[in-house]
Amino acid sequence: MKLFGTAGIRGTLWEKVTPELAMRMGMAIGTYVDGESVAVARDGRTSSVMLQSAMISGLLSTGKEVLDLGLIPTPALAWATREHADGGVMITASHNPPTDNGIKVFNGDGTEFYVEQERELEELYFSGSFRKANWDEIKSVKPIEVIDDYIKAVLDFVNHETSLKVLYDGANGAGSVLAPYLLREMGAKVISVNAHVDGHFPGRKPEPRYENIAYLGELARELGVDLVIAQDGDADRIAVFDEKGNYLTEDTVIALFAKRYVEEHGGGTVVVSIDTGSRIDHVVEEAGGRVVRIPLGQPHDGIKKYGAIFAAEPWKLVHPKFGPWIDSFVTMGLLIKMIDEEGKPLSEIARENVPEFYLTKKNVPCPDELKKRVVESSAKVVEEKLGDEIKEILTISGYRFNLKDRSWVLVRPSGTEPKIRVVVEAPSEKRRDELFEFAYRTVREAVEKAKKNKGD
C-alpha cells in the first residue's frame, strides 16, 4: 500500500487518515529522523488537534523532543523546522475538502521529504521496526511561538515598505493567523475576508482555483484595491487578482517571477511542474534561462537536482534564496515589491511581460484503483488522434503531449484525490476549446469503460 501522494499523505478522515495512522507515522518519523527534536504544527481543520496529538505521542515514544508550534501555516512550519528542529511535521490536507486531513514531513533544512525518503519512511512504517525509548529517555513537549519571528524573517528578506491597498482572502484557513499582520507590517492597507480560522470552511472551498474565488474580482473593483491575494487551507498556495479585478492565471504569476529571477541571475534554471504552460518557457528563454519540467509535488527535488534559482507549480512558488519550501508569504511580499518597483498597476506589468496563452483545466472523478488504467487508455487515444501534430510526449507525471503549434494536452492522475486531471493550453481560444473538448471527452469515456470492465 502506498501512503504518500504528490503532497504528503492525504485523504478522508477515518477512511485513510486516522489517529492510529498518525501515531504510527509519528513512531516511524521519530525513528527515521536523525537528531533530538521534531517540530509539529497543524492547520485549522476540525480533526487536526486530534491527529497532532496522536503524532506527538508517536514521536515521544521514540525519544524525540517535540516542539509544538500549534496552529500555523505550512510555510511557517518549514521555516521554524530549519531554525529550531531536526525535522518537521505538518498536520494538514492543504486545499482538500474539510472532510480530509493529512501529514507532510520536512527535513531539518525545511525541505519536504524527497521521493526516496518517502519510500523509505513507508517501508519503516509497515515494517514496525520503531525505536522504543526507555521510560527515562522520554522527553517533553515544548510549546513555542514562531509567528512573530517568521514575519520578521519574511520582512527582512523582502526588504520593502508599501502603501498599496490589498484585499486578502484567507479561506478560513491557517494563513488567517499570519497574512493580515504581515501585510500590515509592510505598510499595506489591508481588507480581509474569510480571515477567521474555521475548519468547516464556511466562506468558500479551500482550494483557490478561479471558480471558488471568482467573487473576489467584483469585490476588488468595488473596494478599489491594488491587489487581491487568496490562500488555501494551510496557506502554501496563493492566487492573485489585479487592480481591475482580473484573475491572474497561475502560469502568469509563475512567469512574472521566473523572468525576474532569471534577469537578476543573468540566466539560470527554472524548474516547474508538468502542468504549467508555454508562456513560462517564452519569458525564461527570452531572458537567457532554461525551463525544466518535473513531476507534481517535487519542486524541492528539482531544486536539488538542477540547482534551480526558482521553482514552482500552479499556485505554489518556491524562493530558494529564502528557503527550499513553498512559501506564499514570501510570494505576496515580493509581488507587492514588484508592483511598487515597476511603478505600474499589476495588470500592466502582466500584459507587458507575459504573452497570452489560453488554458483550461478540469477534473474527471475516477476511483483510485482505476486511475492507471484510465490514464494509459486515454493517452493511447490522444496519441492516435493527434498523430503527426505531436512534437514530444512527456511521461514524468501522466502523459503530456507537446504539439508543434505550442499547444499541449496533459492527462494525469491526481496524487491526492480520486480524480484524473485534464489540462489543455493553446495559442488561441478556438484551438484550446477544440483540444479540450476532445481530451476531456476521451477521459470521461475511459472512466466509464474502466468502471464497466472493473472485474476484468
UniProtKB/TrEMBL annotation:
InterPro entries on file: A-D-PHexomutase_a/b/a-I, A-D-PHexomutase_a/b/a-I/II/III, A-D-PHexomutase_a/b/a-II, A-D-PHexomutase_a/b/a-III, A-D-PHexomutase_C, A-D-PHexomutase_C_sf, A-D-PHexomutase_CS, Alpha-D-phosphohexomutase_SF
NCBIfam families to which the protein is assigned, alphabetical: Arch_GlmM
Keyword presence, Metal-binding: yes
One of the GO biological process terms: carbohydrate metabolic process
Chain ranges of the Alpha-D-phosphohexomutase C-terminal domain: 363-437
Keywords in alphabetical order: Isomerase, Magnesium, Metal-binding, Phosphoprotein
Keyword Oxidoreductase in annotation: no
GO molecular function: magnesium ion binding; phosphoglucosamine mutase activity
Co-factor requirement: Mg(2+)
Family: Belongs to the phosphohexose mutase family.
Top-level taxon in the UniProt lineage: Archaea
Protein name: Phosphoglucosamine mutase
CDD domains: PGM_like1
Start and end residues of each Alpha-D-phosphohexomutase alpha/beta/alpha domain: 2-131, 148-245, 250-356
